[in-house]
Structure formats: structure tokens, C-alpha cells
Write a structure and sequence with these properties.
Helix content is 69%, strand content 0%. The protein has 214 residues and is mainly alpha-helical.
Length: 214
Amino acid sequence: IVFDILYRGEGREYARFYALETIAREPYFAYLGALHFYETAGVWRKANYLKIHFAEEWNELHHLLIMEELGGADKWIDRFIAQHIAVAYYWIVLAMYFYNPTLAYNLNQAVEEHAYATYDQFLNKYSAGLKEQPAPQVALDYYRDGDLYMFDEFQTDTCESRRPVINNLYDVFVAIRDDEAEHVKTMKLLQADVELQTSNDGTCEAPPELLLGA
């Protein structure tokens, strides 16, 4: 509701997405901070989770870079609001993770589900215009032309490598929307305490009954 008020109106979509992606990185920063603390204190070590959560943050970072290239961060007030909410959200998630990691993962599942729905609505509303615009260079580098190791690392439900087709701006937003669905799947699996693997690992398929929509 807050974002609907602050970023309502035509032409404010990219600023809204910039704010959402700024904030979306914070849970993964919080998870990494908590995991580093637990390992340093000798409580337990989950090195694979460190890798996956970093890859998830790396994915959200590239969503953010795309929004910046599209002009979403051009206004000082938009950056100010997003960054201050992000700092507060980081500490909330960190405290929640220390209290109960399952609750922290459940919260982020809900947030990522909302992100998926938001991008899906945007695609349905502006599909024609988006298909006429070129893809930002940062999107081409991340999804198509660059090293895709990190892109594969945040996807934990399948052994098959996902390769988005990026020909225009519409394709970019389809890829971002589908990324959010991948985050939802991972958050659900984490709540089930599954030992996560990715397509870069030897064993990468999660139990079918735990996958989203099963």
C-alpha cells in the first residue's frame, strides 16, 4: 500500500521497481550476516546456503542495475526513500532470522510472491510498448552474454539450466518476473529444511512434493 501511494501514476513504474529491488536485496544480506555469525561462533556451518543466498542477492542486484539503467533512480527522493526503508528492513529480517530462520524465509516468500504478481501485472498492461524497446545492456550481459554461473546458482529446484531469450525490454521483464518465481521456490524449500543444491552441484533435484505448486 505504501508503494502504491508513493509511486502511483503513469511513468512511475521504474521508480517503483527501483525501490522494490533496493529493498529486495536486504533479506539476502541479512541471511548472509546471520550465517557468517553462526559459523564464526561455532554454532553450525552452512556453506552451501552462503553460496545460494549470495547468488540470490546477485540476482536482485542485477534487477536493480536494470532499473537504474531505465531511469528508476534518477530522482533523489526515490533513492532516499528506498535506501532508508531498506536499512530498516535489513535489521528486521536479521532479528527475525536469529529468532527463527523459518519465519524469515516465510516472510520473504510472501514478498517474492508479491514481486512476481507486480511484474506480471506490469507485463500484461504494457506488453505492446515493451516489445518495441531494446533490452538494457546490463540485462544482456547478465541473462545472455556473460558468465551464467551465478545465474544458475540461485535456482535450486531443477538440474536444467534456465536460459531466458532476451530480444527486447518485454523479454527482460519476463525474465525478472520468472526470477521472482525462482526465489519463491527456494524460500519454500528452505522452510522445509531441504539441503539445497543447484545445477552446478552433483545432485540438484529437490523432492517433487516440496516444489512450488506441487
